[in-house]
Design brief:
Elements (H helix, E strand, L loop, with lengths): L1 H19 L3 H12 L2 E2 H8 L3 H13 L4 E5 L2 E5 L2 H17 L1 H19 L2 H6 L2
Antiparallel strand pairs: 1-3, 2-3
Helix pairs in contact: 1-4, 2-4, 3-6, 5-6
Length: about 130
């Protein structure tokens, strides 16, 4: 009986991961967090979405075990653990090679992220 419970719990974890990856906005966030840590105000600037929507998507990703949040002063910084990056990066990068439209969106998001970092959005929007 304990084995059945163990497998059931493991399947629930896998289900949470797939649920977390099943939304286009969450996938865009995941691709960004594969490259670097970000705060909500940076994600808002990059994705052009309101804070409540970003926060909701981040909660689902965190509940799926795909990222963690750490407080640094006034900011909550979202990071993807290295072990998760190692497992997801090859799969997700392969998916971009097979979907040119998605690859274009991710390239655009990555360019927006570089602009956001260059313009110090975290400091300007969230304060020092």
């Amino acid at each position: 009986m304990n084995m059945i419970i163990y497998y059931w719990n493991e399947m629930k974890k896998v289900n949470r991961i797939f649920k977390a990856l099943s939304d286009p906005t969450r996938l865009r966030i995941v691709f960004l967090l594969l490259d670097r840590e970000l705060c909500v105000c940076e994600l808002m600037a990059i994705l052009g979405l309101e804070q409540s929507r970003i926060s909701h998507q981040l909660r689902i990703l965190r509940d799926g075990g795909l990222l963690r949040d750490d407080r640094e002063g006034r900011w909550i910084i979202y990071r993807m653990p290295e072990a998760v990056k190692e497992r997801l990066r090859p799969l997700l990068e392969m998916s971009l090679r097979e979907d040119p439209a998605a690859a274009k969106i991710i390239r655009s998001d990555r360019a927006s992220m570089q602009t956001c970092i260059r313009n110090e959005i975290r400091i300007k929007r969230c304060g020092a």
